[in-house]
Design goal:
Order of helices and strands: HHEEEEEEEH
Largest sheet: 7 strands, mixed
Oligomer: single chain
Number of helices: 3
Distance between the termini: 70 Å
Length: 191
Amino acid sequence: GPVMLFSVATRVQNQKTEQAIQIAQGEVDKVRRVVEQGGDYAGDLTALSLVETTLADTVLVPAPTTFIDDTATATNVNQAKRFDADGDGDSDFLIQLFRTEGVKVSSNTAGVASTPVVFDVGIRVYDARAENNAGSLRTDDAGLTFTSGEGDRGSRPLAVMYSQISQGDRDASLCHYWEYTGSTPTNLVCN
């Protein structure tokens, strides 16, 4: 009866949300690994489809309006990549990944202008069905809820994560961090 439907729908919604949270954390971990390896990694961040926004706050980045295959590289913050979590060939999730400009340092690699050393990253993971609602998607997460149907999975992300990434072992990294926060350090000389 209705109680069984309510229970099954809630369980499905919560399982999808838990999967989405794991996917979002995995994306943050990929970005952290690239930054921790050091060097001039701006190209590696681009290869992860980590698109730079000119907005100072990742929370302000609008919801995606276009969707690309998981083999493509995102070039715009309004894009989300399709993601097949179970290997059946069908998209299960949509991943929107973006970062702020942050603080950049000059690159030592030909063809790479600069490398961000402190920046904020944002990840929103939507249910694949959200693609049908392009143009009316929201940015606040649907979260774990009780539901008797799809809940908000068609319009709101199942998981949202915002994190600050910084490379702490680069020359003057502490000064760059202070610059990023808009503060002036005391008892520290920054050149």
